[in-house]
Every structure is written in C-alpha cells, then in structure tokens.
Amino acid sequence: MSDTAEIECQRCGKCCLADMLDYAAEEEQDRWKREGREDILRIIEQHHGVWMGDHIVSADNGHMFRGCPFLEWENGLTRCAIYETRPRVCREFRPGSSEICPQFKPDKQEE
Ligand code: SF4
Q1: Would you write out the chain's pLDDT as a tens digit for each of its 111 residues?
Q2: Ligand 1 atom, smallest distance to 9 CA
Q3: Are strands 49-51 and 56-58 parallel, antiparallel or unpaired?
Q4: Which of 17, 20, 41, 110 is placed for a possible disulfide with 67 were both Cys, Cβ 3.0 to 4.6 Å?
C-alpha cells in the first residue's frame, strides 16, 4: 500500500471540481444502463460538459459548470450522490495523489 492510499479524505470536494464524468468510460455507461440508472444517464446527457483546461463548460450552450453534477453538500462537507455506483475514475482517485487535493505532499510523491 502506498502512502497516498492511507491519507484520509477531508471531503472538501475539490477533486470533484474536475469533470470526472467526461472520463467515465463507455463501460460505465453500459453498467448504468444495466443497473437501470436512467437518472444518471439523463443527467450526463443534459450535462454534456467539456473540460477547458481549468473549468467545465456545456458543449451545447457554453454555460460554465461548477463541478460534477453529482457533488452534494452535507453539513459543510461534500458527498457524492452516486457514491455506490460512481465511475472507476472516481473510485481509483486517492486522496493526496494530485495537487488538486489539499492532502497532497510533493515530497511524498518522490519517495
Ligand atoms: S480533494 Fe482530496 S480531501 Fe478533498 S474531497 Fe478530494 S480526495 Fe478528499
């Protein structure tokens, strides 16, 4: 197990400001179809976000999004509304593994 795997998530939600959904592979969409999660598929279709390097915009109308449409707030902390069936790109993200995370420690990455 790496050091970053042991870092606890602070539920700040910063990693959810990147448009992880655009990285949701076709296999995830097939899985959601099998699971009958039309609610997720409908939101993704409506979302139609495109990552512009530092923000997400709608490919349909240029509207800027604030982050993942499934990011919710709960008592000052964030939570994923589809946590139990979230895409692999989100399941595999480890707290502290990227500079976007406040738990990131550059010296730990070089060990
Ligand atoms: S950026 Fe890091 S601490 Fe914040 S929610 Fe994501 S994994 Fe957790």
Answers
A1: 444 457 999 999 999 887 677 677 788 999 999 999 999 998 888 877 777 777 777 777 888 777 788 999 999 999 999 999 999 989 999 999 999 899 998 876 655
A2: 8
A3: antiparallel
A4: 17
Protein residue with its CA nearest to atom 2 in ligand 1: 101
Going from the Cα of 68 to the center of ligand 1, the distance in angstroms, rounded, reads: 13
Nearest to 4 by CA among 16, 20, 15, 17: 15
Edge-to-edge order in the sheet of strand 56-58? 49-51, 56-58, 64-65
Instruction: Give me ligand 1 centre to Cα 41, in Å.
Output: 25
Task: Give this prediction's pTM.
Answer: 0.77
